[in-house]
Each structure stands twice: as C-alpha cells, then as structure tokens.
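Lecture notes, continued. The same structure-token format from the folding unit now serves as the input rather than the output. Read the line below as a description of shape only.
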C-alpha cells in the first residue's frame, strides 16, 4: 500500500513535470527510438493472408491522460485491424446485453495455457470452465450473447460501441482483411463446430463467425485504442465528460480478464514486466489499460511466438518502468 502510494505520488509529479513542457512527447519519442530495433525480432502474421502485406517496421504509441492531454510518437495514426483487441469489446457488449451471470455461465475466466486458437480439447468435454473470453473459442461463443435479431444487428451494436468508446464515428471494417479471414478461417470454423457439438452454441456457425470475423477486421489506429482503453482505466466513466458509459463492475470484469489472459501465454511475463491489463491482436495492436491513470494504444505488427507484438511489449515495459505504472 505504502509503495503504491509512493509510486503514484512520484508519477503524479512526473506527469506535472511533463505537462506544459512536452517532456511526455520527448519520453515517448525516446522509448520509441530505443524499442524500434525489436521490430526485426518478430514476424507479421501470415495465416490471414491479407495481414502478410503489412510493413513489419511500423511502430507507434499513443496515450490518453486524465487531464485531457494526448501524447504520441511514431506511426500512431497508421490503420490496422483490431483482431483480438476486439475481444474485450465483445465481452463488454455481451455483459451489457446479457449480464454477468449469463456470460459467466457460458464462458469461464481461467487462463488456458494454450495458444489463442488451440482446439485440442479432445481429452475432456469442452465446457465454459475450459475457456475464457480472450481466446477465440470464448469470443466466438460470446458473440451469441450480444443482443440483436440478426448477426448483422449484433455486429452493428458492437461497431457502435467501438465507435462510441473510441470517440470515432468513422471506425469501419477493413473489407480486404475481413474477406481474407472469412476465406481462410477454417480453424475458427472448427472451433465453432466444437462449441456446437458440446451444446455451447446453437446458432448457425457461419452467421456467428461472420460477426466475429467482421469484429476482428475493424480498422483502428493507436489513438482509437488509447481512447477505448482510457474508459476501461476509468471504470466505465468517460474521462472527459464523466458520462457513465457502462457499469464499473463490467470494467472490473474486463480488466481482470485482460490482466490474466489478455496476452495469451505471455500474460504472466507481461504482468511481471509491465504490470497492467492489456490485450494484443495479431494485427500488431495492443490496447493497454493503466487503471485510474491512462489509456495506451500501441501498434507494431512484428509478432512473437504467442502472437503478441514484440516491439509493442518492449515499449510498454519501458513506459511502465519510467512512469511507475505497474499495479502490482
Ligand atoms: N482474427 C484472429 C483469429 O481469429 C484473431 C486472433 C488474434 O488476434 N490473436 O485468428
């Protein structure tokens, strides 16, 4: 407790120092320069063919602070697809539409210790307890709990939520990435049929997957992710207008799931080295939530073996150390 207080007093001082002097921008430029070499240590995702066309050297960071200021460096306005970064929004929309009990009954919250698209459930019957909202099976199942007569309507609600939280009415689907994943996403089809076989979902698989693939293909920049993250950091309250966008208990639910499962098999290491909730995607984005402090958006598409942005994680490590952001 004492340490936490000291750290936040320290970082409040740092923030004050940065305010008005542009030191924050300098800090971001500096860590970006330090971390850029790590882009050569990863590889862009190729299993969705369209993602293979992304330049692996891109790197950007954007932060949104409670005083309303925003700071950034690098290729922070580049567009990329959310991919799994949309999973916290699918979870949030399911919570808002169906409530905590229904969500928890369908999808659990334990880390799986397996890749995000693992489907080796053969040794045990697939149940909610074996999955969580941050892996593909969990997110696909949760699409069914979004309110809407049709899957088009469910997706529209999700897109509207993303636009609202990002304060960007222009967010839309990258059609090329969507078509590419729809054409090749047979592993996700296998997962959805497994969910059907074990009675966890009953709607037509292609309709559910269409909603899931479109959600993964929403095109964003680092600013959009920082803005969305900031609302989660602020427990569901818009940091500027103080509008209650969703209940604090949903923010707690999402943030806790991000802290334990958001970086897949890298979640433990990330908790140690960075120390706050975050969600990665194979498009190279990371949405990071520093509770009560700020929202952070990262883009760098060269990935490690877990499907997380290599340079992005290094950026967050550096930034967390310099700003005393770890919650642990
Ligand atoms: N659309 C991707 C998939 O389902 C998302 C995976 C990810 O970003 N880790 O395979």
């Amino acid at each position: 407790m004492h340490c936490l207080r000291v750290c936040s007093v320290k970082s409040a001082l740092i923030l004050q120092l940065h305010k008005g002097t542009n030191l924050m921008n300098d800090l971001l430029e500096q860590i970006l320069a330090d971390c850029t070499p790590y882009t050569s240590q990863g590889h862009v995702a190729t299993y969705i063919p369209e993602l293979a066309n992304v330049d692996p050297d891109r790197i950007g960071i954007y932060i949104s602070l409670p005083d309303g200021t925003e700071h950034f460096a690098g290729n922070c306005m580049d567009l990329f697809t959310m991919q799994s970064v949309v999973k916290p929004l699918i979870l949030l929309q399911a919570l808002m539409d169906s409530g905590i009990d229904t969500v928890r009954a369908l999808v659990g919250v334990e880390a799986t210790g397996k890749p995000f698209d693992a489907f080796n459930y053969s040794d045990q019957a697939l149940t909610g307890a074996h999955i969580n909202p941050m892996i593909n099976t969990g997110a696909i199942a949760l699409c069914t709990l979004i309110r809407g007569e049709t899957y088009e309507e469910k997706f529209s609600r999700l897109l509207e939520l993303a636009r609202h939280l990002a304060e960007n009415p222009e967010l839309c689907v990258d059609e090329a990435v969507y078509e590419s994943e729809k054409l090749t996403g047979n592993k996700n089809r296998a997962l959805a049929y497994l969910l059907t076989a074990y009675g966890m979902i009953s709607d037509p698989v292609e309709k559910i997957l269409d909603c899931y693939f479109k959600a993964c293909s929403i095109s964003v920049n680092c600013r959009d992710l920082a803005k969305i993250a900031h609302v989660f950091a602020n427990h569901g309250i818009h940091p500027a207008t103080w509008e209650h966008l969703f209940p604090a208990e949903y923010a707690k639910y999402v943030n806790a799931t991000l802290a334990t499962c958001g970086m897949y098999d890298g979640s433990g290491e990330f908790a140690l080295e960075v120390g706050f909730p975050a969600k990665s995607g194979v498009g190279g984005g990371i949405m990071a939530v520093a509770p009560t402090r700020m929202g952070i958006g990262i883009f760098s598409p060269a990935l490690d073996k877990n499907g997380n942005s290599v340079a992005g994680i290094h950026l967050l490590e550096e930034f967390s150390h310099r700003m005393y952001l770890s919650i642990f």
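Point for the exam: Confidence is low (pLDDT under 50) at residues 1-20.
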